[in-house]
Every structure is written in C-alpha cells, then in structure tokens.
Amino acid sequence: MPTISMFYGILVAIMFEDNDRHNLPHIHVRYSGQKASITIEDGVVLAGSIPPKQLKMVQAWIEIHKDELFADWELALAGEQPFRIAPLQ
To answer: Does 89 reside within a domain?
Structure first.
C-alpha cells in the first residue's frame, strides 16, 4: 500500500487491491493506531474511523488535491506506482 502523503501524523495511502471491497475511488488513512477508508469524491468515511479533527484535515486535503487523487487512483488501478502528493500545510 503506497503512502502518497504524510501530514500532522496522518499517513495517506492508496491500496488498489481493495477495489472489490470499496467500489468507489478512495484513500486509506492512518492516524495514531486508527484507520479509515475515505472516498475521494466527497470525503465520506467508508470504513473505520479517525478522530474528528484529523478527519476534517483529511477532507480539506482531499478537496485541495482531488484531481491528483483521481489521477493516482487510475494509476493504482492500472498497477502503476501512484505519485506522491503535497501534504496539508
């Protein structure tokens, strides 16, 4: 599962093997031992949970980098290494 960004203790990854489980384009987020799968389109949590403050940061980051995230999703589906994306600053 390639890590595509890290900020404020949050790790963001795309795991393309998981496409059958969550049919929507999504990212995987880890923070302080917690995990969540979050849609790229609208930032909805598909599975798991992270604290509300960190979730809001991830959702803001998704909104800023939505085009890059969709491009990375397509790369991952094609079995290619996704590009790293700038962290939230």
So the answer is: no
C-alpha closest to that of 68 among 52, 88, 53: 88
Confidence check: pLDDT of 18 > 60:
no
pLDDT at 21: 55
In a domain, 12, yes or no: yes
Number of neighbours of residue 89 by Cβ within 10 angstroms: 7
Domain count, the chain: 1
pLDDT of residue 40: 97
Helix axes 52-64, 66-77, angle to 10 degrees: 90
Residue 63 lies in a domain: yes
Quick one: tokens of 29?
A: 């987020």
Which residues does residue 11 pair with via DSSP β-bridges, in sequence order? 6, 30
Domain limits at 67? 3-77
